[in-house]
Write a structure and sequence with these properties.
It is a single chain. 62% of the residues lie in helices and 5% in strands. The chain is globular. It is mainly alpha-helical and 258 residues long. The chain has one domain. A two-stranded antiparallel ribbon has the order 1-2. Helix 8 runs antiparallel to helix 9. The protein starts with a strand and ends in a 9-residue tail after the last helix.
């Protein structure tokens, strides 16, 4: 595993960045298809604006969320805050930032928020799966040591290699990639089932909360709230909030064929 795809003189192209570009490109294509199918009044130019609003805000929020939990280190090394290519993007922070950006965008464009997020979530979970390839090559989002035959020994200068020198670790990023792909298949399959607006979005949050809760049991770089893993706390909140959202709004009821 090596984080650099190509290096020509001072120009360095990293797998981490390439996977983000691929995820955004594929996600944009799927989103455009869904917006047209759902007849949401947004042009291709408006969708591009949506991406340009959402992606930077989500990345900044993901980084700030991570930095907040690691302030003992970053408070002494402020310049390292901007080094996102070294890893350190917390998905829960990114999702919260992204949702805020989409909400503001939907208000500005006067389009239904839940219909728009329902169109987005299959692309989002697929993009997360693609992004995990970047984590694999970077050696971050790594697992704890394991003796299982599929454990991976990462290079000594990678985040995993520095945390567990010479030890094979769970390929937690691969576990999450596989589960994210399964969640994508489900969200893509239900999009035409006629559920009320907001159902797919709520299911995305519940599914990802479950996925992250399971995968985090193998993670070696998780953030903590005291003795408790922060992803477990955030995931529990997401499951409760969006489970109640589905139940109170009876979003599980099909209203029409989409």
């Amino acid at each position: 595993m090596h984080p650099i795809l190509v290096q020509i003189g001072p120009v360095t192209i990293r797998y981490y960045g390439v996977m983000y570009v691929v995820a955004i490109a594929v996600g944009f294509w799927l989103l455009a298809r869904e917006v047209r199918r759902k007849k949401i009044p947004l042009s291709s130019e408006s969708l591009l604006d949506l991406v340009l609003w959402t992606i930077p805000i989500a990345i900044i929020a993901a980084r700030l969320y991570y930095v907040a939990f690691q302030w003992d280190y970053y408070g002494r090394n402020l310049v390292d805050i901007v080094k996102i290519w070294q890893g350190g993007l917390a998905i829960h922070g990114g999702v919260l930032g992204g949702i805020l950006a989409v909400f503001l965008f939907s208000r500005y464009k006067k389009v239904p928020f839940w219909a728009l997020t329902d169109a987005m979530v299959p692309s989002l979970i697929l993009g997360q799966a693609i992004g995990r390839i970047g984590n694999l090559m970077n050696g971050d989002a790594y697992g704890v040591p394991t003796t299982l035959p599929w454990g991976i020994r990462f290079p000594a200068d990678s985040p995993a290699g520095m945390a567990y020198p010479g030890m094979a670790t769970h390929p937690s990023m691969i576990y999450e990639m596989i589960l994210n792909l399964a969640a994508f298949a489900y969200l893509w399959a239900i999009r035409k089932k006629g559920y009320k607006d907001g159902f797919s979005t709520a299911m995305y949050f519940i599914l990802y909360a479950v996925i992250r809760s399971v995968v985090t049991l193998t993670r070696g770089d998780d953030l903590y709230l005291g003795p408790v893993r922060a992803p477990h706390v955030a995931s529990a909140i997401m499951i409760i909030v969006f489970g109640l959202f589905i139940w109170r709004g009876k979003l599980y009821q099909r209203t029409k064929l989409a």
